[in-house]
Amino acid sequence: MGLLIDIGVAKTNKYASRESGDTVEVIERPAGGLTIVMADGQGSGRAAKTLSQMAASRAVAAIKDGARDEAAAITVNDHLLAYRHGQVSSSLILLSFDLRSNEATAARFGDGSLIVLDAGDEPQVMVECPPAGRYPGAEPVIRRWPLAPKWLAVACTDGVSNAGSRDACQIDLLSFIRSLRIDEPAQIGADRLLQHALSLAHGKPGDDMSIALARVSEWDGDSAVRRMSVRVETP
């Protein structure tokens, strides 16, 4: 009996902004496994997009070179400091699935949210830490979990976690995540969470919104096939 890792991503831009300042990548690790890279550049629009792409591309390059998640996140922090001199920052979440060690690892800078539900355990919410690119010597928060059926993680930028706050009806991320069905595909869960956040913002999000949902379940298939599907809607 093997494991199935299912990942779904959903994102949208700030209302009246043509570009999202968030960048989300899903890449293969050189020694096997997958990594989700989520970066949220300071501000919004084109400048934020340039910053988040810089952060994400640096993280992707480090991971593809074989760096561990902690080292990749530190590389992003030091790179932004070197080239932007602490004047701008980015939140960063790396969520990795290592098929050799059968572990999930998370590295986090900034105020993006990461909530993990482990079978039979209380929800785990990663604590906040400084953003990448602001302080010399900053280190990310690191957590590890064994891969097992019924494991679920949701990562999102602050545009999602702050949805509805302007109307005093801020989203309850934990309650929503607990409501997700165990057998629900990751993409459907990510889409439902994005729609819920958008509804609280009355369809006019005050910030870019990005969600990555990953779940682990049992898999009894005979073949080891990797599939990836991408859908982008344009105005």
Gross CATH architecture:
4-Layer Sandwich
Instruction: Look up the CATH topology.
Output: Phosphatase 2c, domain 1
Number of separate strands: 10
Distance between the termini: 44 Å
Number of helices: 5
Q: What is the radius of gyration?
A: 17 Å
Uncertain residue segments: none
Beta-strand portion reads 25-35%
The name of the CATH superfamily reads PPM-type phosphatase domain
Class inferred from helices and paired strands? alpha+beta
The averaged pLDDT comes out at 92
Question: Largest sheet at a glance?
Answer: 5 strands, antiparallel
CATH top level is Alpha Beta
- Name the helix and strand elements from N-terminus to C-terminus, one letter apiece: EEEHHEEEEEEHHHE
| Overall number of domains | 1
Strand order across the biggest sheet? 1-10-9-6-7
Helix % is 25-40%
Structure in a nutshell:
The chain has helices at residues 45-64, 69-84, 158-161, 173-178, 186-200; strands spanning 2-12, 22-28, 34-41, 90-98, 103-109, 113-117, 124-125, 141-146, 151-156, 209-219. The protein has 235 residues and is α+β, with helices and mostly antiparallel strands. The chain is globular.
What does this protein look like?
This protein is α+β, with helices and mostly antiparallel strands. It has a single domain (2-219), classed as PPM-type phosphatase domain (Phosphatase 2c, domain 1, 4-Layer Sandwich). The chain contains 5 helices and 10 strands, in the order E-E-E-H-H-E-E-E-E-E-E-H-H-H-E. It has helices spanning 45-64, 69-84, 158-161, 173-178, 186-200; strands at residues 2-12, 22-28, 34-41, 90-98, 103-109, 113-117, 124-125, 141-146, 151-156, 209-219. The protein has a 5-stranded antiparallel beta sheet with strand order 1-10-9-6-7. It has a 5-stranded antiparallel beta sheet with strand order 2-3-4-5-8, covered by helices on one side. Strand 2 and strand 3 form a beta hairpin. The protein is globular. The mean pLDDT is 92.
